[in-house]
Write a structure and sequence with these properties.
GO cellular component, one term: mitochondrial inner membrane
Catalytic activity: H(+)(in) = H(+)(out)
Number of strands: 2
Organism: Quelea quelea
Strand content: under 5%
Number of helices: 9
Subcellular location: Mitochondrion inner membrane
Mean pLDDT: 82
GO molecular function: proton-transporting ATP synthase activity, rotational mechanism
Largest sheet: 2 strands, antiparallel
Oligomer: single chain
Helix content: 55-70%
Shape: globular
Number of domains: 1
């Protein structure tokens, strides 16, 4: 029984071909496409307004040099939002519950921000490893601690996103299983668990959106430190 709860997190395949690529590229079909019309429909206008709002929120903590990353950061948060929300639908697979995928997103972008800082302002970037006014005997220990905290950032990004989404999916499956199992014996308790399931689903929608925003926001803060 315990293994069946985790089967939803295994990467689906058909005839030995992994279908995770289809799950990752499907959200692109929901994005607005370019056209030559001056007047667009309401859906396209709403999508463009939402993307513009996200871009403004992400660019607030960044200076003008960081605005070059607007396309990358906005595309990433829209990608994560769509994948997280589509993963809440029944009989769907959520690629962001895979730690390997989240690390593959976090590590290259974190490394790019780090290399940007080392190229543009190496002294300031290396200065983050040693706080000003540190006593001389504590310098080696603080350098090791700060270096470890710097290197663990991409791991923390990936693990945070994976853990929050995985826990939410497991809770939804556990409560839905209990609702079905109790329906024949205790209908009143089953209706109560159904209400809890409905509230939990609303909470998971909020968690899916918040975790996508936090993932990209932390990357933007890492970028701000290096520019």
């Amino acid at each position: 029984m315990n293994l069946s709860f985790f089967d939803q997190f295994s990467s689906p395949s058909l005839l030995g071909i992994p279908l995770i690529l289809i799950a990752m590229t499907f959200p692109a079909l929901l994005l607005p496409s370019l056209d030559n019309r001056w007047i667009t429909n309401r859906l396209s206008t709403l999508q463009l307004w939402f993307i513009n709002l996200i871009t403004k929120q992400l660019m607030i903590p960044l200076n003008k040099k960081g605005h070059k990353w607007a396309l990358i950061l906005t595309s990433l948060i829209v990608f994560l939002l769509l994948i997280n929300l589509l993963g809440l639908l029944p009989y769907t697979f959520t690629p962001t519950t895979q730690l390997s995928m989240n690390l593959a997103l976090a590590f290259p972008l974190w490394l790019a921000t780090l290399l940007t800082g080392l190229r543009n302002q190496p002294s300031a970037s290396l200065g983050h490893l040693l706080p000003e006014g540190t006593p001389t005997p504590l310098i080696p220990a603080l350098i090791m601690i700060e270096t470890t905290s710097l290197l663990i950032r991409p791991v923390a990004l990936g693990v945070r996103l994976t853990a929050n989404l995985t826990a939410g999916h497991l809770l939804i499956q556990l409560i839905s299983t209990a609702t079905v199992a109790l329906f024949s014996t205790m209908p009143a308790v089953s209706l109560l668990t159904l209400l809890v399931l409905f509230l939990l689903t609303i909470l998971e929608v909020a968690v899916a959106m918040i975790q996508a925003y936090v993932f990209v926001l932390l990357l933007s803060l890492y970028l701000q430190e290096n520019i």
